[in-house]
Amino acid sequence: MKTEFIKPRFTGPRYEEHTLPVEVARDLAVYEELVVELAKQLYLEDHAGRQRVPRGFEKSFSLHLEQVEEGSARPVLAWVAAGALARQGGLGYFEKARDLVSECIIASANQQALPAKFPKHLLDFFNVFGRSLREGESLELPIPGGAAPAVLTPDRRKALVLAAQKVYTKDVELTGRIGEADWEKQTFRIRLEDGTAVVAPLPDPFTDLARSGGGKERTLAIVKGVGIYDAWDHLQKLAETHHLELLPNQALAVQIEQLAALEDGWFEGVGQALDKDQLAWASDGLVSTFPEDLPFPHVGPSPEGGLFLEWIQVPWRISVEILLPSHRCELQATNTTSGESVESGLDLDQANTWPALYAFVRSRV
Amino acid sequence: MHTATLLHRQVHPQWFKGGHVLSLAFRPFPKDNGLLSVYDGDQIAPEPAWFHYTKQQGYQSAGVWSVTVAEAEACQLPARPDPKPNSPQHALIDFTSHAKKQQEAKSKILAAKAEARGCQFAPPAT
Predict the structure, then answer these.
(1) Is residue B124 a part of any domain in this protein?
(2) Does residue A261 share a domain with residue A323?
(3) In chain A, which among 229-288 make CB contacts under 8 A with chain B?
(4) Residue A226's domain is classified under what CATH number?
C-alpha cells in the first residue's frame, strides 16, 4: 500500500534545476527516523499502561522517494506500508508526528515555546535533519489545510538544536511546601501543589524560616524570586530567592477566613454574620497554636455568630464552639452510639487555654 | 407518621463540610424554641422537599439528610406532623424536654444517624 505522506520543498540556488543533491537523502532518512520516534512517543503517551508500541509499529512505516517535482525541488515522499497496522492507517500516529515536527519548526521560527508534546531529547534529530541546508536555502514542510508551511533554515535548525539547552529567566511566585534544605549548598526544595519540586537558593536571611517550615505538610511557603525556564516554558529551578513567607496551618486558616464573607440572614434569614475582627482573633489563635498531630476540624458558623469546629471520629463527635465576642469556648464530646457525652468550658482570654482545648479533643480523636 | 417514617432535614451549605454533615444541621436554635423543622417523609420525597425549601421558601440547602421517627424517639425526641399553610408536609422533632447541652449531644447523634444513611437528595452541580 502506498500513499503520499509529505511533499517537502527545497529552495535555493542548488535546487533550481529541480534536482536533489545526493547529500539531502541523509536529511530525509533522518526525517523518517524522527517521525517514527515521535509517533512512538505519541502512542505511548496515549497508552499510559504500555511499556512499548505494538509489534510491527515501526516496520509499518517506511518512506520512499517517489519522484522530485518542480518548484524548486519537491521530493514526493510516499508512505509504503504493510501489515496490520498499515491497514489501520498506522493508528494515525505517523501523521500526528509529521504535523508535530512542523509545529515545532513554526514555534521555533516564531520564538514561541515548543509544543509540549514534542520531547526534548528528539531535538537532537535536528543535528542531522536539515544539516545539508546552506546559507540562503530552506526546507518547507507543508501544513495540512493550506496554512503557511513550516520553514527550516540553517539558523532555525541551530535554534532548535540549542533549544534543548536553552533557558531564560523571569520573575516567579511559587506556593508550595518546603521539602528539604541543603545547608552546605545553601538551597532548599519547594514542593508545588502539582507534585513537582523546584530547587531554590537559600540566602542567609531565610535560613531560620526554611528550618522552621521544612518538612511541615501543613505549612505553606510562598517564594518569590527569579525562575529559570526551558524552551517549553517549564520551570527548571530558581536562580534567585527574594522573598520567603510561611503560612502555618493554611488549610485551616482558609476554612475559617471564608466565614467572614457571610452576611446577616445567611441562615433562614436569621443567621448572624460573624464579626470580622473577632473571627480574625479566633483564626490567629487557632492557626498559630494548632498541633501538628491533630487532624483539622470541619469548620462552620453557628447561627448566633460563633465559630463552630467539629471533629468526626466514629463513634465520637467532638465539637468546640467559640462564642464571639465573649471568647467563651464550649466543648462537647458525644459518643453517637452509646449516647455518652462529656462537656467542658474554657475562657480563651485566660493564659494557656488553647492547649487545654486541644487536649480535650485529642482524648477522643 | 410511623416509626419508619423518614424525617427530611435540609442542610445548609455551611454545615456540609468535607463530605460530612455538621451536627449544627440537626440542632434547634433559639428561634426554634426547641422544635427542629423537618419534612414528613410520608408526605413528601426528599427531592420535592429540597425544591420546596430552596425555590419556594428561598433558603439555601446543600441537600437532604434524613432520620427515622424511631431514631429520633430512641434519643427521647418525639416527632409529630406540624402542617403549615405554606408547608403542609412540615413536621417537628421535639427537643423541648431536654436542656441545651443535652440538645447539642442529641443533635450529634441525629447527624451521625443521618450521615450513616447517606444523602437522600443532592442538587445537581451547577
Answers:
(1) no
(2) yes
(3) 255, 259, 262, 266-270
(4) 2.40.50.200
| Residues B24, A302: C-beta atoms closer than 8 Å | yes
Shortest distance between the Cα of A364 and any Cα of chain B, in A, equals: 15
Beta-carbon contacts of residue B9 (< 8 Å; ≥ 6 apart): B25, B26, B36, B38, B39, B64, B65, B66, B67, B114
Question: Hey, what's the cell of B87?
Answer: 408547608
Backbone angles phi, psi at B9, to 5 degrees: -115, 135
The residue range of the domain holding A152 is 2-163
Domains in chain B: how many in total?
A: 1
Q: What's at A55, amino acid-wise?
A: R
The ipTM of this complex is 0.95
Set of chain A residues whose Cβ sits within 8 Å of the Cβ of B59: 268-269
Pair (A73, A135) in one structural domain: yes
Contacts of A299 in chain B (CB under 8 A): 17
Query: In this predicted model, what pLDDT tens digit does every residue of A149-183 receive, in sequence order?
Result: 999 999 888 888 888 777 778 889 999 999 989 98
Residues A326 and B96: beta-carbon distance below 8 Å: no
Instruction: Assess contact for A136 and A151: CB atoms under 8 A.
Output: no
